[in-house]
Amino acid sequence: MPIDVSKVESPGWWLHRLGKQILDEREDRTDSDGETEPGLDTLRKYAENKAPLPRVPGVDPRDAHEWMKDARTNWSSLVIDSPAERLRVDGFRFGDPDDNSEDARRADTEANRIWQENSLDADADLIHYGALSQRRAFALVERGDDGRPIITHETPSQVAVEHLQGNRRKLAAGLKLWRDDWTGNTRATLWTPDRIYEFVTKSDAPSFPEHGAELGSWDAFALPNSGESDRENELKSVPFGVFTNRRNRRLTGFAEHEDTLSVANRINLSLIMLVAAMKYGAFKQRWAAGLEVDEDPLTGEKIQPYKLDIKSLWTSGDPETKFGEFSATDLKPYVAAVQAAVQDLAAISKTPPHYLIGAIVNVSGDALKAAETGLISKVGDRQRNFGESWEQTMRLAFRVLGDERRATTFTAETLWRDPESRSIAELADAAVKKSTAGVPWRQRMEDMGYTPAQISRMEIDRAADAMNAQTATDPTVPPPTSLDDARARRDQRPVIGREDDDAADAA
């Protein structure tokens, strides 16, 4: 039965609206100013070093296709990888900032358990890279068979969402469109705050016409074991965490390498012309004058007297014959053009120059840090943006568990690893100075780069150290009755580097 799309906010209307959005964004389009806006397929090709080959005057692309492909260099991937490799989530803080109780600690522990259950130490990188390279990425949160939350990475080439009108924080609907490899059909799942709908079409290349009151090729999909094509949305929310990159450039997202595509084209053109000059002009062409050339008796064409070969020596029996050679093409202007374009790429993308050039000679550590200032600032901006998305994703996960208090809390915090490169000596020295300033021990450990799980284990080890130290110094003192008792006794003892913990905790 055809799907009706005429009624606004009906399931068919959402399928048509969001499905068309998914397909349209894959292709390039021209804006009102006549500028071409790259589609998701084009952005992906540049990230995978499959940028279109430019035309070089005097070179037939059919004859030079292979070596022209080899002349391309994947600068766009470097622009994306530079911030992506520094985006690492260490954990979450879900309790009230003023609440130091065990209940607040358990909230952090449960969030980290959800993270580990879903292998997000690895899959979070896919989400970050997807957002950087494809403008947006999504984290889909669903309930597993065991009642635990399942979080998966989704791409904008398969998923589209729509916000409530006038509200950029709440989602009105979300659609996932994908090919079912088992049947060859195309499936679609639509989420609204109240219901979840399933659709199917036998076409492997579905389309969504601009005009029309129905979708003739689509039909409702009956789920196995239920026979129904829709079901209640138990979460009462569209279950997507939306990771949008560079919303300050475009609300729908702006890829990390999107404003460097023209520079990448210029670099590739310069490199291809450099290779062409090396291939056709770097070998010195020779000439001969005063040489009698024989003719082919059948065709009347001149017979080439010499073979142009780097291993051949030209000779003549006529003493009047003169030989010479043309100068080779100077490659320095081509190299300078590539270097100038690379510098433009570094400035626009805030990629450290030594990442692109690869030459580090007699450069101090302070100079390297100064060169990375722009990159660190950019990574900090992405952390703030993606941190909000991770917190929304974890709130959805807590909703799956039925924990409404944490599902609605807005005091959550994403703990990111420090994106700046620091030596162990620098971190340790800073920790000692922070101890003197009264910074609590747990915060100092976070600043040194330890994960929440590592810090929790170290707390237990500290408590065990306090037990052993107490027994060794005064055998008459009874052993601690619990871990909390051990922690209390530990905090009453002066420990090297931790003398100010008690005062800091009291403050």
How would you describe this structure to a colleague?
- This protein has 507 residues and is an alpha+beta fold.
- It is 43% helix and 15% strand.
- Strands 7, 8, 9, 10, 12 and 13 form a 6-stranded antiparallel sheet that branches. Strands 6-5-14 form a 3-stranded antiparallel sheet.
- The chain is flat and about 115 Å long.
- The relative contact order is 0.11.
- The model is unreliable at 494-507 (pLDDT under 50).
What order do the helices and strands come in, and which of them pair?
Layout: E1 3-4, H1 11-26, E2 29-30, E3 36-37, H2 40-47, H3 61-71, H4 75-84, E4 89-93, H5 102-117, H6 120-134, E5 136-143, E6 149-154, E7 159-163, E8 171-179, E9 186-191, E10 195-201, E11 214-215, E12 218-220, E13 230-232, E14 240-244, H7 261-280, E15 286-289, E16 322-325, H8 332-349, H9 353-357, H10 365-371, H11 373-400, H12 404-407, E17 413-416, H13 424-436, H14 441-447, H15 452-473, H16 483-492, H17 501-506
Antiparallel strand pairs: 1-11, 2-3, 4-17, 5-6, 5-14, 7-8, 8-9, 9-10, 10-12, 10-13, 15-16
Helix pairs in contact: 7-8, 13-14, 15-16
